[in-house]
Specification:
about 475 residues; alpha/beta; Fumarate Reductase Iron-sulfur Protein, Chain B, domain 2; FAD/NAD(P)-binding domain; 3 domains; 5-stranded parallel sheet
Length: about 475
């Protein structure tokens, strides 16, 4: 008689909130082999497998989970790596709840299979046992591809193209590879050692990395095309949005991009060991409701703030951040001022001290599908803080567009592409990730990059644009 299915996921150990708010160590601890096997046995191994189509990079999820259930972690890792070159990263930061796990058949009656946790387990097992996957690499071609940006899109495109035998060079503007994985996502959610080992894996496939190289100044796209047969643009969205409110230029007001880059990439959280200063506010306000806002708020807490507040103009239901990140923030004591719109920053002697706000109520859904916030007249109030972080979105840097005028652009400076091939308006140039969408998810960028790699390969093989 078949063993009944456990209706709930196997829980994953976490650092207790009262401890983790004082360190930058990873919050989630991962599964043990026994826990992974137990969770994998919940999978129904569905013939139609909606989870695969729910995954932007189309990992064969039932196949890898079946091997986990059998304790064959080596085969599970090999299957994942066929589609996902960065599983230790995607297993940690993917919004599985709205993708593969969101369409899990088991979810019709119970909690979905913990696909992300299992993917993370397999990737971590592979690393800790030092038994890295050795995928098939096709014979070398005479074609050269320049990959601009070493974030999730660039790394994915580079991995796929290197496996197809092409000569790949990755150009990274910063002094460390990883893009948003390095500068944007905090250590407690994505350890930089994990990012490094995934970058090293991509390089082990034959791709080369050229750091401190800014395409647009060090060389233009046109100059790259003189040496390379194709160029892939995966430079992300590093230009922060501001609110345009009075007092926004006061000292102590940061963009989330600067705040997180100082802490994550430049290691300000380990000052003075690393010579990067950062404002450690006693009271910190973060404006926004996405994952970046949660990252900034939780970082402020760990840097030593006594009180951290999130200001968001809609309700908790509309928060765009992952539910897991919101719950982590709440457990850590971060306050949420919901249905609240900022109006102006106030301060003295050039330093911010207060944020004037207005309370809202929710009306009908707007173009985003979320209910529109409507101001309640006369509900103005002020919140006091000495550091304020604006986390309301970002756009692609205009540097490549300005130096490559033939690239067609869309709203907000995104690069226009053919959605099936990721071809831009300029021959030989492809793009994927946040540079074509604005700020989005790691896994969406990776899925687009895989499509771009296939199209680049076809172009290099046929010469047909």
């Amino acid at each position: 008689m078949a063993k009944p299915i456990n209706p709930k996921k196997v829980s994953m150990a976490e650092q207790p909130p009262e401890l983790r708010i004082h360190n930058f160590e990873e919050v989630a601890r991962g599964y043990t082999p026994e826990q992974a096997i137990e969770e994998a046995k919940r999978c129904l191994v569905c013939p139609k497998s909606p989870c695969v189509s729910g995954c932007p990079v189309n990992v064969d999820i039932p196949a890898f989970i079946k091997h986990v259930a059998e304790g064959d972690f080596r085969s599970a890792a090999d299957i994942i790596k066929r589609s996902d070159a960065l599983p230790a990263i995607t297993g940690r930061v993917c919004p599985q709840e709205t993708q593969c796990e969101g369409v899990c058949v088991l979810k019709k009656r119970f909690e979905s299979v913990a696909i992300g946790r299992l993917e993370r387990f397999v990737a971590d097992w592979e690393a800790t046992t030092n038994t890295l996957s050795s995928p098939t690499i096709l014979p070398a071609t005479d074609k050269k591809v320049a990959v601009v940006g070493s974030g999730p899109a660039g790394l994915t495109a580079a991995a796929d193209l290197a496996r197809l035998g092409h000569h790949v060079t990755i150009f990274e503007a910063l002094h460390e590879a990883g893009g948003v994985l390095s500068y944007g996502i905090p250590e407690f959610r994505l350890p930089k050692g994990v990012v490094k080992r995934e970058v090293d894996y991509v390089l082990s496939l034959g791709a080369r990395l050229h750091k401190d190289f800014i395409v647009g100044t060090s060389a233009t796209v046109d100059e790259l095309l003189e040496e390379y047969d194709a160029v892939f643009l995966g430079t992300g969205a590093g230009l922060p949005w501001f609110l345009g409110l009075p007092g926004e230029d006061l000292g102590g007001v940061y963009s989330a991009n600067e705040y997180l880059t100082r802490s994550n990439l430049m290691k300000a959280y380990r000052f003075p060991e690393y010579d990067t200063p950062i404002a450690i506010g006693q009271r910190v306000i973060v404006i926004g409701g996405g994952n970046t806002a949660m990252d900034a708020a939780r970082t402020a807490l760990r840097l030593g703030a006594n009180e951290v507040m999130i200001v968001y103009r809609r309700s908790r239901v509309e928060l765009p951040a992952r539910l897991e990140e919101v719950e982590h923030a709440e457990k850590e004591g971060i306050q949420f001022h919901l249905l609240t719109t900022p109006l102006a920053f106030y301060g003295s002697d050039g330093k911010v001290e207060e944020l004037e706000c207005l309370r809202n109520e929710l009306g009908e859904p707007d173009a985003s599908g979320r209910r529109k916030p409507i101001a309640i007249e006369g509900s103005n109030f002020r919140l006091q803080a000495d550091v304020m972080v604006i986390a309301v979105g970002q756009s692609p840097s205009p540097l490549i567009s300005k130096t490559t005028p033939e690239l067609a652009q869309g709203k907000g400076g995104i690069i226009k592409v053919d959605p099936s091939t990721m071809k831009t308006s300029k021959k030989g140039v492809f793009a994927a990730g946040d540079i074509i969408t604005g700020g989005a998810t790691v896994i969406l960028a990776m899925g687009q990059a895989r499509a771009a790699a296939r199209a680049i390969h076809d172009y290099l093989e046929t010469g047909v644009w």
